[in-house]
């Protein structure tokens, strides 16, 4: 409810309107039955009657900040966002490093020097791919539990000498739950005891059927160590991305998701944000999780400053008031007062939630309970 009259409030609490008027009088507020009251007053009254409440206005405030709705005509192609997953020691880090190195070889300014939790590479044909360099499954799970969908494609690394292991299966489940297509990268094919066909055989048990077994699963055999077939892996990612026809509207205010964040000496709260819609610009004011800020600088994986970041670009954002958490949203708003208001409401809500874990209900729950 946006506003409440004294009469409506009395109804919800199943007390007489006159009693609410009297209670308010005792509080020093003169009001009639039909008078609309503000959230602060409503809260006091409800507490006076022995009920508890979460502010009416909080819902209104937060509901208002969702990214702008895009129409199809505004959508333009965007790079794929890829997460590399797999069992421990099967070579996730090595694959990410090897792909990074191809970027260094390509002669980009100094290569990828910074660790920013995500980076973008440009293929020989000029296509861009964004890789999320999140430490393993925990980050993926926590992001999904927060409703953040960041990954378009999962590259599942399976060591050819070890085959399908528990975390391989876990990764398959994560990818399926997220609705993200999987590309199998059978890694370590340089090893003498490598057995890629066993990997393909074992994957059958998890409904993953590769082409040579009559299925459609994309699979690439690689050696991250020797650099074998990395080009094919990149090509396969590009192919999968083309099938998905990934698009976003770059011509609006930005929204995205926090990939990682920390407090840094001399730089303040810094977050790596994946822009998912719109274009983020220096000077933009934003809400992100329970905090807010104004973009002071945008820094890419090469340590270079950017003026703007378009969809699927991961970028370090400087200018946060406080550090957000991985998986938090990021939405550009039109004014500082708005950003503050939303961030404060969210921070208070989080505090209330933490303080009472179920003791204190939402307004909706409260009003339906009384
Ligand atoms: P992660 O735990 O999945 O990130 O695996 P790492 O990338 O850390 O790799 C684990 C070990 O496997 C390291 O010692 C790597 O050097 C080794 N490794 C990774 N890829 C290959 C490969 O293609 N061939 C061989 N022989 N070793 C590899
Ligand atoms: Mg690793």
UniProtKB/TrEMBL annotation:
GO terms for cellular component: cytosol. Keywords: Cytoplasm, GTP-binding, Initiation factor, Nucleotide-binding, Protein biosynthesis. One of its GO terms (molecular function) is translation initiation factor activity. GTP binds at residues 86-93, 133-137, 187-190. It comes from the Bacteria. One of the essential components for the initiation of protein synthesis. Protects formylmethionyl-tRNA from spontaneous hydrolysis and promotes its binding to the 30S ribosomal subunits. Also involved in the hydrolysis of GTP during the formation of the 70S ribosomal complex. This is Translation initiation factor IF-2. It comes from Minwuia thermotolerans. The chain holds residues 309 to 678 of 886 of the full protein.
